[in-house]
Amino acid sequence: MADASAQDLRHPQARMSLMNGSGDRVKIDGHSNCAGRWAQAWPAFLDPGRFFDNTLLSSFPNSVACQIRVSSPSGTAHCRYVVSRLKTTLAGPWKPGKVAVPVSRKFTCTSQLEHTGVAPGDFAITLDVQ
Q: Cβ(63)–Cβ(83) under 8 Å?
């Protein structure tokens, strides 16, 4: 059994499902400022009605964060999601996972927190482009 200090140093993961609820093919043209690495490469495009699951494996024991940008192939419509979950200190409690959508144009960009707590810091979220 791991002691509490080892548990505090475990690096969290964020499972993200990107749903394309729009009637058009979308381009996944950015996943930047990520605090970690993705379990697999993102596809360049996502067809209507399809989804793609990926997991961000954090580089840090007290945070997991990334920006994801999805756009129409022409670039006239887009969503930018900022996904994060943080601790204030290594020994402190986890804050709830959250998603901000600071920029959207012509798409409706929504998100749903699916769950937290499989392991300390882990969470799952669905990002939906309409």
A: no
